[in-house]
Amino acid sequence: MSDLDVDVVVIGAGPVGENAAGRAHEQGLSAAIVEAGLVGGECSYYACIPSKALLRPVDLLAATHRIPGVEAGPIDVGKVLARRDQFANPDDSGQADWLSGAGVTLLRGHGRLAGERAVEVTHDDGTTTTVSARSVVVATGSVPTAPPVDGIDDVGAWTNRDATQVKDVPSSLLILGGGVVGVEMATAYVRLGAQVTLVQHGDRLIPATEAEAGRRVQAALEADGVDVRLGTSMTAVRRDGADVVATLDDGSEVRGAELLVAAGRRSTTDDLGLETVGLPPGRPLGADDTTTVLGDWLYAVGDASTGAKLTHMGKYQARICADVIVARAHGKELGGRYSHHAATAEHTAVPQVIFTDPQVAAVGHSEASARDSGLPVRAVSFEIGNTAGGSLQADGYDGFASIVVDTEREVIVGATFVGQDVADMVHGATIAIVGEVPLSRLWHAVPSFPTMSEVWLRLLETYGL
């Protein structure tokens, strides 16, 4: 016997799960969603939203310094944190009300599979609700991982949650990891007044991007006063009074009031009852391009699956997932957007913006990843500061744009923009890649003058069109 019968039950009420449940209900299916924490998930309270709220004020101040005649500052840290709280106040009643208004039943508690098409929800008071559903969607997100560093579990190390919800900026901060979280938080904290040391085991920052992007971000961080240690690992950490002291593999030591571990994330699939349906727990769920994991009833979206751990890609998957569930409920064939285009976006056109200063906005392949994939490519780049739009944007504008072209098909398969205020430039490149727009056609997409988008014309000219 079940306590609740619905067409769709979603485990996880972050933005990805909300999208899946809401879209399914909009198309006529009954939907429930299960959440053990805050409705709105990691992105809303501890990641994308609060981190950008911390970064925007300090980046705006830096931008004013690049325009003569504009004076601003100094930063009022208290007001920055107060504004952050307006965006990421851990009160999820508004998001819960949105679910209710959208017709989705919210069940607060921990959800686990209880066999095929069944989810058992354990509430905080120990009671349980069993949900029977035609379709089950896993949208449980991810959690930070910590490398095997001696003592790391004993020093009260921060994760992204601590860094984005801080009440007071520490005098100094050690950061372990030079990926997106590491470089963004280094940017925010050094400009909020902390002394920052960043330790990265690899030979460059943000290694998934073009190498030049990592070099320019490193140069900017060092100009701000960040001590960047590349090709270095922490072997041990300990508390020495109020400080954390980290021993590095070269025998040296660095210290800070706090240690932020920004060394990656893993899918949260440990305690989901996957074994009740013959699947191993603790691993990303291998969904196909329709987001299907098992039969025609179990689906996975967002960080719980094997795709890029990015909110916008998870929400994209959630829209596909809901549409697939609705199509199957109505006996329709799957095709069109559930096949080729889904595969294109998932595997070759994933956009991302890193909100450092300079910003890094990229989509699709880097030159290295394209060559590793066996594509015949040529990459060209152009300095954005050498366009009228770039020079007007900031004195001494430091940034570049690059495209990676498949020379057989003459289409773009990757693009990168680095510089102040380039975040929104990446969507045009995303459209060009997903639409497989030939360069000969792209030539007729005339950029407005004088904007930084003029760099598109310069890139095509550099390529030889």
TrEMBL record:
Necessary cofactors: FAD
Signal peptide: none
Keyword NAD applies: yes
InterPro entries in UniProt: Class-I_Pyr_Nuc-Dis_Oxidored, FAD/NAD-bd_sf, FAD/NAD-binding_dom, FAD/NAD-linked_Rdtase_dimer_sf, Pyr_nuc-diS_OxRdtase, Pyr_nucl-diS_OxRdtase_dimer
Alphabetically ordered keywords of this record: FAD, Flavoprotein, NAD
UniProt superkingdom: Bacteria
Ranges for domain FAD/NAD(P)-binding: 7-317
Record-annotated Pyridine nucleotide-disulphide oxidoreductase dimerisation domain positions: 350-456
Stated family: Belongs to the class-I pyridine nucleotide-disulfide oxidoreductase family.
Protein name, per record: NAD(P)/FAD-dependent oxidoreductase
Lineage: Bacteria, Bacillati, Actinomycetota, Actinomycetes, Pseudonocardiales
